[in-house]
Please model this.
Amino acid sequence: MNCKSILITGGSRGIGKAIADRLRAKIEFSEVYAPSSKELDQSSEVSIKRFKEESGLSDAKIYGLIINAGIHHSENFEDYSSEDWNRVLDVNLNGAFYTIKHFLRNLKLYQEQNEEAYPRIIISSSVSAYTGEQYAPAYAASKAGLIALAKSLALEFAKYKITVNCVCPGWVKTDMALKQMNGDSEIVKNHLGATLQDRWIEPEELAGTYLYLLSAEAKAITGQQINVTAGLDL
Model:
């Protein structure tokens, strides 16, 4: 069996950790790199280059790149500072560009050694890209930008047999989502009540979507966004 290496940014907690745990349980994935934000600061191109060198990945053949690191900032728009706006865009959108830029060669190396393979890039976006998000304009804008980035790269990377897709979750039960709601039971009720299933999505079940997009059965899927929302009306 041809084993595959996967790199997940933001892989130390939440959705990223759930994906990493599921991948490590699969024999076909030989190496799963899931650095914390301290090891790989996605907002810093210097940090990404340093991580690549120090982790021994400079010449590694990587089958899957999962861009999952992200931050959220909620604030009344009139109080939303330029610093907060730029910080969210730097991590969520610019960081995706930096990471893909510096690991594209690794995906191409994998494909060159496995001509029938279609290496994968999967980007974590959000349903906020469609709906917007009150008090979180930078987050919504960054997530919409990621969909456009994925579609653009899918067009260009098709010649390398590399697929590029987005996963757009709804309300996933993570620390970040709970923090957004500030423990307010009424806000939770309103958000979850807007879904057909009236419930949180667990990180472990969302991870299954990423595993499918990494599978051989998904090699014809590229330039798409997959919505996992528990039935949220978009």
In short: The chain has eight helices and six strands. The beta strands are 4-8, 29-33, 64-67, 120-124, 163-169, 225-228.
